Amino acid sequence: MVTTEEILRMVRERRIRKITGPDLHCANWEIEGALRMLFNILDPEVAKDPQNLIVYGGRGQAARNWESLEAIVETLLEMEPDETLLVQSGKPVAVFKTSVWAPRVLLVYSHLVPKWATWEYFLELSQKGLIMFGQMTAGGWAYIGHQGIIQGTYQTFLLAAQKAGFGEDLRGRLVVSAGLGEMGGAQPLACVMAGGVGLFAEVRKEAIQRCIEHKYLMEWTEDLDEAIEMVKNALRDKEPLSVAWLGNAVELYEELVKRGITPDILTDQTAAHDPLYGYYPVGLSREEADRLREEDPKKYMELANKSFIRHVRAMNKLMKRGAVTFEYGNALRMRAHEAGLPREEAFAFPGFVHAYIRPLFIEGRCPFRWASLVGDPEDIHKIDDLILREFKHDKLTVSWIQKAREYIPFQGLPARVCWMSYKDQARLAKRVWEMVRKGELSGPIWFGRDHLSGGSVASPTRETEGMKDGSDAIADWPLLSALLLACSGATWVALGAGGGVGVGLSVHAGYGLVVDGSDLSKEKLMRVLTNDPRMSVVRHADAGYEKAIEIAKKEKIWIPMIKETWPHRKRLPQS
After folding, report:
1. Does 414 score more than 90 pLDDT?
2. Are 444 and 528 in contact (CB under 8 A)?
3. Catalytic pick among 191, 211, 418, 487
4. 160-169 residue pLDDT tens
5. ∠ CA 466-468-474 to the nearest 5 degrees?
6. Is the terminal CB of the chain with fewer CB neighbours within 10 Å at N or C?
7. What is the pLDDT of residue 575?
8. CA 432 to CA 493: how far, in whole Å?
9. Are 289 and 271 in contact (CB under 8 A)?
10. Which residues contact 439 (CB under 8 A, 6 or more apart)?
């Protein structure tokens, strides 16, 4: 078992590892849970570049610098159960006496006043040590590796296949994409789970090797002819296969155009949202690009802008030939448009939420996730069994859990993601609470979700693209979400900006919730896991989506402007 001294030594020696076992190092499991999730996202098995505190997505950090991280850890180890730590862009700034119902940590990161919310100004402040980019779940201490995004990717591929008339899965179909980083690395396995054949471009050999090691990718090669031959054979035999090609996405797409090879599904997960640190321009080797980024960032951006235009134009050509094409939320279309591509060309294909995922958001299904804080895989398997036994009414969830058990390896603390309904999230958490209480699990469980959610994000080129009432850019909703989470009893609440798409382009909120078997944790989980998914229903009901309005009326989700949702009218005269 790790000791408090060893925890401090890990930080001071800059070699973070996940914390496991039943021993407490903090005042209670709520604070301990925050500490363990922070260490988990910086474990080398999970994080992209732990030495620089980068978790995923170009430069999404867990803390601003090592001095800030050390202060955060020391503070968590010293805090009392009725105190709240405030973290401003990865730097701990104060601890206040609040209450046992208040969050133990409030994290806000990457926000700039809108007029100044540009990458250029953000970089100036970042270089002065005043701010950090927290992505979505890095700065919010909720990242769980590839496994956190994989159901969303799998579900998107299936929905794309069904909408295109391919059938119920991707058997015998070719998926082409690029970017095998911490988010995009889920694509190969998601494709195989859906029965398809995938070809993926990636310029970083270590990213490919990481996917191989984590069993998210089957094959890779530096020879494009060999890669194409492998996928052709798999398509002929209708055998699921994933192949990575070590090369640039633009070169892959343009070569497919040249050879007359049209994918069935085409998307992209290069880190275009962070053009300087996440994207590799076509025409440069990996080594040349890394050197140019440091020596002449202005020139690097000029080349990146030219590359964005070629990137989208190649995808448009494949789309016109019949490829079902969509952006997977990486701001590629926006970057191409900002670089000079006319809007009608840049946005010729839709984003994945607008095209496929919004119906799930409308009914309150969001990427709900949980992890064993003591690090016992059997705890996750027991929760799997519980779902398969007691949630048979939800065929989507049961099917997913069966697939996840078969295919998905754990990274860091054992964890699971599941897009459960707005009712079943609270039902499951209550049953898990009972299992913790009775000692049927090895220890407390953490619940959370991706910031990619229907009620907690404003992102006009991703989660809120094409809203029915035109409210794409209204950012009140994630602010309301964060405030509601704090009032409902979340263990920690995170309010970020720019995640997924870049500075100035999104605002998003998320949470962490520790279930330790206490009466108080039960009260908190019932409020948080009822209120949070209902926000997704409310957001879409307010935007005029009929399905969301129907759910709100049926479930009496109290929306003052929809009188049929009022649970009572005892105090007002009846008309």
Report:
1. yes
2. no
3. 418
4. 999 999 999 9
5. 70
6. C
7. 59
8. 21
9. no
10. none
